[in-house]
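re: ur question from the group chat, yeah i did fold both. here u go
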Amino acid sequence: MLPHPPGRPQDAPVSRIAITPAAAEVLRHLRAQHGPLMFHQSGGCCDGSSPMCYPRGEFRTGGSDVLLAELAVEGVAEPTGFWMSAEQFERWRHTHLTVDVVPGRGSGFSLEAPEGVRFLIRSRLLTDEEARLLDGAGAP
């Protein structure tokens, strides 16, 4: 666990990504239906720039992808990996991402599409302290 910046709970590690309670609830529902899951942050094109949710291993990652985090979600037995292309990560490396969910239909490729909701990313710049801690730790 990395040190925490001031104002952050002692047990909360510095992270590049978080998930809202609403998105966590959808993830629990999808996990019950599909088994272990993963996210891959799309870089655009046909799916916009949405985080795409797949059964773990269905989306093939490789050397051109970065694992940003293994999201621990209460009620989900295993962590949910969150991947992004390395090229996109270089543009977003100073950004903290939060996976959220909103009503509406997203891409047909992501597991939540038939549920009438879609995952999306909310972002903010990392604080100087967060960036220093993450970059100093060699974390993606």
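okk and heres the other one u asked abt
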Amino acid sequence: MTELTHLRSPAGVAPGNGYSHVVWGTGRFVAVSGQCAFDEDGAIVGDGDPAAQARQVFENLRRCLASAGASFDDVVKLTYFVTDVAHLPAIREARDAVIDTSRPPASSAVQVAALFRPELLLEIEAFAITPASDDGPDRVEPGGTFDTRPR
């Protein structure tokens, strides 16, 4: 079993607005690469629409987390890369639809000059902690693959 602790306001630090300053726990660490607004065929969803792109990105994150046996309840950190900080309200709305807002993950938002395709408005990466397991995830999503070679 994993227990995560969310500290929204450490002593001497102003409270976070919609995020926790510190999150810790024990278990298996899961890192999800930055996800963009691509559907399963690689087509961009929501060209020019930050809300539609954010919803697609969070769906992609959900699928990636599930492939590792994780969910948004296990997420301890989100990092947002946005081409315009004006997109943050749309991103927060999409985020709040999938996370427990009483226990938000730690978060960082960075405005970037551009992403790797000009149509993309945002990219989000996630870190999660799930219960420790010797066997890895309980299951892999259909079509998913993973490498279990010793390092």
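fwiw on the second one: Residues 145-151 have pLDDT under 50 and may be disordered. Residues 50-67 form the longest helix (18 residues). idk if thats what u expected
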